[in-house]
Amino acid sequence: MSEQTQQQGTSAARRVVVAGAGMAGVQTAVALREQGFTGTVTLIGAEPHQPYDRPPLSKAVLLGKAEGSAFDVDFEALGIELRLGCEVLGLRPADHELDTESGPVPYDVLVLATGAEPIRLPGTEGVPGVHLLRTLDDAERLRPVLARQHDIVVVGAGWIGAEFATAAREAGCAVTVVEAADRPLAGALPAEVAAPMTAWYADSGAVLRTHARVERVEPGAVILDDGSRLPAGAVVVGIGARPATAWLAGSGIGLGAHGEVLADDRLRTSVPDVYAVGDCASFPSGRYGERLLVHHWDNALQGPRTVAANILGETSAVYDPVPYFWSEQFGRFVQYAGHHAAADTVLWRGEPSGPAWTVCWLRGDRLVALLAVGRPRDLAQGRRLIEAGTPMNAELLVDPAKPMKAATA
């Protein structure tokens, strides 16, 4: 980070422009007002819809139980200018201008909050019946598919694949989930932790096929690389997401190996007066000693408060959260807090074959992460223990009858 960047003088900013109108963008605009910013705030979103929350898309909106999930924010009362249906095209930091479909937008401070975009299955661009699930329009296109109870093939047994499979089974569809790896959530959890989740698919009536790669998609069918032909009235692809940052090419903004904006611990970018927050950015974690790229709702909720505080310049706010997310799948409430990559010990609370259990990761005697299935109290207490860096007693911790807060050393 350059000296010029370190001295970003933003307290005198009169025009803040936020690129991206998802959770991170909306919360940045709201946090600026809540923290006393009186200048111009402009929120630019590529979609024409009123800004909305994404988690309900794979649940209530998809099943027709809700028409949408617009944020309960009175943008007009807060003096936040909305420019919707306006895609960002480029950035010219030397001119302090953001290029958009509607022309250049000048800024004193710019916040990048363009989120992530789903990875497409190669060879399926424009193929009828192949769907993604990221936007409100995606969910609206899938609603009648579920209503007609098609045979559905879900590609990818990650978080979004499991959530969609759950909704499709609830709608009465026949569901087959194909996963290239040997287990669900292979990119997110160790094998011994993900293994118990394999049975959840069969219990719900869904078919899970692992070690399965898609060769091609034909009208009404998915062909796997072993020659298997799966009937498919619709195909839903959930094989991950990448930061939506291609538009920053040539801007001078430093990007990482995954295309993410490389923010510092105050969420500043490599370019003066430009911040980045949410799914499009990674940040260095002092707590975990590595750079984190977190594609989850809570990160998009928490980061904007740090951005707003640093824009106002009244304090030097460092961003170093305990990452948190949740997932509802196959009748289970799954929650995760922390970051387990550097753990040296794994402990179980409860039997993974049962309806409720928790996995705890420790580094030395400190809790660094936990996954709670049907045990929300473990999650709440464990998250606070991670934040505090409290030494734990392993013998007490493995007893599921004892509260986690009572398992300290």
TrEMBL record:
UniProt entry keywords in alphabetical sequence: FAD, Flavoprotein, Oxidoreductase
Superkingdom, natural source: Bacteria
InterPro entries (UniProt xref): FAD-oxidoreductase/Apoptosis, FAD/NAD-bd_sf, FAD/NAD-binding_dom, FAD/NAD-linked_Rdtase_dimer_sf, Reductase_C
Domain Reductase C-terminal stretches: 324-407
Cofactor: FAD
Domain FAD/NAD(P)-binding positions: 15-300
Coiled coil start-end: none
Gene Ontology cellular component annotations, sorted alphabetically: cytoplasm
Example GO molecular function: oxidoreductase activity, acting on NAD(P)H
Name of the protein in question: Oxidoreductase
